[in-house]
Amino acid sequence: MAIDIKMPALSPTMEEGTLAKWLVKEGDTVKSGDILAEIETDKATMEFEAVDEGTVAAILIPEGTDAVKVGEVIMRIAEEGEDASAASPKPEPVTRAEKPEVQEQAAESGTPVPHKVETGARQMFEAAKHDAEVRDPEIPAGTEMVKLTLREALRDAMAEEMRADDRVFVMGEEVAQYQGAYKVTQGLLDEFGDRRVIDTPITEYGFAGVGTGAAMGGLKPIVEFMTFNFAMQAIDHIVNSAAKTNYMSGGQMRCPIVFRGPNGAASRVAAQHSQNYGPWYASVPGLIVIAPYDASDAKGLLKAAIRSQDPVVFLENELLYGRTFEVPKLDDWVLPIGKARIMREGKDVTIVSYSIGVGLALEAADRLAEEGVDAEVIDLRTLRPLDKQTVLASLAKTNRLVVAEEGWPTCSIASEIIAICMEEGFDDLDAPVVRVCNEDVPLPYAANLEKLALISADKIIAAVKKVTYRQ
Amino acid sequence: MAKAPARNARTKTAPPPTPNRERPAEPQLYTASKEELLKFYHDMLLIRRFEEKAGQLYGLGLIGGFCHLYIGQEAVAVGLQSALTEKDSVITGYRDHGHMLLCGIPPKDVMAELTGRAAGISKGKGGSMHMFSVEHKFYGGHGIVGAQVSLGAGLGFAHKYSGDGGVCLAYFGDGAANQGQVYEAFNMAELWKLPVIFVIENNQYAMGTSVNRASSEDQLYRRGESFRIPGLQVDGMDVLAARGAAEEALAWVRAGKGPIILEMKTYRYRGHSMSDPAKYRSREEVQSVRDKSDPIEHVKKLLEAEGVKEDELKAVEAEIRRQVNESADFAENTPEPEPQELYTDVLVETY
């Protein structure tokens, strides 16, 4: 029986990849452990090993093919004793447009079919495809827009600031030779060398302290945490050393440092690797906290963060790293810190969100529009200082407000927004403000439970219907 | 359970291993000129009188919160910091008043911070444990035990990155020496050959816990061994030993050989902080150190042997008392911060 070998998923978020190179050819004998091919994901080039033994009967996807979907049959192996040529009639190389759906073609497969699991993270990931409907007013009219992934935008921001200022350097785990655990620092070592792109040992507390000390000593460090979950080890330096320096010194000692890395739930990585620290850091005076949604904001705000003389916590989202967005093609795209952005204008209800929640809010707004509800979507972008004015102005217009936050509800940014609406926007409210947050539990691993725990467009829609008294 | 048979030490024990890497030379006692000795005497006495006055103001309620005095340990900072140049930086924990005075920060700026006044070095917003002076390359004054070790490694990183030739002197205590981040910082400092002198001020007690009760390896100068950081154990009650160790350490670090550890064996006469009754040690123990090893008395004897007259030393002391009293008067009478200062200096920029 011939064995179909399928395009493997090599990361939790991989949906397709490039078949970079075949290391076997038709007629070769392969055994378990042999490397069959090199496959490029959006993060890395991976070697793909054989599990089954036999003879290569057919290579179905030529090397160099881009966008090969996970699960697509890429080669066929004839088992021992089987005539490789007769094992299965060599299929005509299918043109990509008419290739059959992999899921239905699983019958004779020796390898399990990677099937799309419906998880909460995937929902968020899918929703994040939304582009903003309202152009950022900060972008000058007539500016050319280019497509960039979020990770490229972040990398470009660092590279531009490093070119402009020798005091700026990057340190963290795997930022240099490995090119970044999530490939955000790709290429920086080549351009700037190991004086300015520094691999650290796995010692978050220590290197957060070294970075903070270097900032006190006059440099401008960018400290990358592989994820903010690991920054729990370092939170003492972020809060006690970096945030309070200026105040405790009566304004004479600066600490211009950026702590950045992915934050929030990723895909199926469960409780210890999935939490949103936005509310934690946003409660600390002395810190700037930024959590961008799209690539344009990520670039403009990271550049602003690096230039700032204050310590900045810059919260990225791993699920968004590979997403492509439009970024203005400008020599120096810097956004103001502390300013929210209206992503979609509407008159019936305001949905306030940030980071990956913005994608869900935009999806919810699209679906609500079909039902005749015109929602305004606000991306806070900066969590501290919070742009109250934009939120309150929108509330004054729509009189109804929902906060969507990928994070726990208790003592959240949502709680803060609600307090602001109560204290300063009470007269504008036609309904109580409702928050849509993750469930108040550690994030579970099981796909179905993860989906139940995370926020979704459906939950936002339900909340909007509640505040607009439509159900 | 039966005991394992005792090994025949004479035949079975391997000869001690020869060190396979370079080590600093044993530091020598510093040979000080009469002028230098007088300066050491002055600086140590200034710290002692300043701290005694601070203790007094604390008793009067003019200083609040936590206040950690340096009395007894003066020879450490005086000996070490007398060897520094203008390009070098200093960072320490919360027992920081003495180190600050030696960085050249005026006593009245420190005292006014202790009383929480606007004229204090941190405008009254830092207090005893959180004082800084970028101008004098004194980077704190840190209230979290051990934080200054990683931060000090970072200051060393900045010296190396900018190529300014400076060295960071990072002080911490025997208590902080058990903090995990200390070893993270040691590892990176040696890995990157950072110009840092890690100074362990071993005053024998981490608050109320003696070194032996808290440290599996109580010879703290050895704490860098597994990171290949050499360590020297130094008599921290002898300013000349401290200065001699500083010379050796600075030579090592400035030659690009990476960090070095100095364990300064010292003793604090007062409690851990002003609110510590110090019941964990006997009055006799303290008195015995004062009688036998006081760093100031030691230098006083050396000066007398140099032919310096009692009158001359009395004049030095009188001038110090005048200066300390003046700083205390100032600290008591200068105004508190304006209420609106509450909201300043949270952030540098406006957003």
From TrEMBL, chain A:
Biased composition (Basic and acidic residues): 93-102
Catalysed reactions, semicolon-separated: N(6)-[(R)-lipoyl]-L-lysyl-[protein] + pyruvate + H(+) = N(6)-[(R)-S(8)-acetyldihydrolipoyl]-L-lysyl-[protein] + CO2
EC number(s) given by UniProt: 1.2.4.1
GO BP annotations listed: pyruvate decarboxylation to acetyl-CoA
Cofactor(s) the record lists: (R)-lipoate; thiamine diphosphate
Residues covered by region (Disordered): 80-116
Residues that span the membrane, as ranges: none
Record-linked CDD domains: lipoyl_domain (cd06849), TPP_PYR_E1-PDHc-beta_like (cd07036)
Any Pfam family matching the protein: Biotin_lipoyl
Domain Lipoyl-binding: 2-78
Any one GO MF annotation of this record: pyruvate dehydrogenase (acetyl-transferring) activity
The keyword Membrane is assigned to this record: no
EC class name: oxidoreductase
Keywords on record: Lipoyl, Oxidoreductase, Pyruvate, Thiamine pyrophosphate
Annotated function: The pyruvate dehydrogenase complex catalyzes the overall conversion of pyruvate to acetyl-CoA and CO2.
Quaternary state and interactors: Heterodimer of an alpha and a beta chain.
Protein name, entry field: Pyruvate dehydrogenase E1 component subunit beta
Automatic annotation (TrEMBL), chain B:
Enzyme Commission number(s) of this protein: 1.2.4.1
Lineage, highest ranks first: Bacteria, Pseudomonadati, Pseudomonadota, Alphaproteobacteria, Sphingomonadales
Region called Disordered, residue ranges: 1-26
Entry's Gene Ontology molecular function annotations: pyruvate dehydrogenase (acetyl-transferring) activity
Keywords noted in UniProt: Oxidoreductase, Pyruvate, Thiamine pyrophosphate
Protein name: Pyruvate dehydrogenase E1 component subunit alpha
Keyword Zinc-finger in annotation: no
Cofactor(s) the protein requires to work: thiamine diphosphate
Boundaries of every Dehydrogenase E1 component domain copy: 43-339
UniProt entry tagged with the keyword Oxidoreductase: yes
Reported function: The pyruvate dehydrogenase complex catalyzes the overall conversion of pyruvate to acetyl-CoA and CO(2). It contains multiple copies of three enzymatic components: pyruvate dehydrogenase (E1), dihydrolipoamide acetyltransferase (E2) and lipoamide dehydrogenase (E3).
An individual GO BP term: pyruvate decarboxylation to acetyl-CoA
Source organism per UniProt: Sphingomonas lycopersici
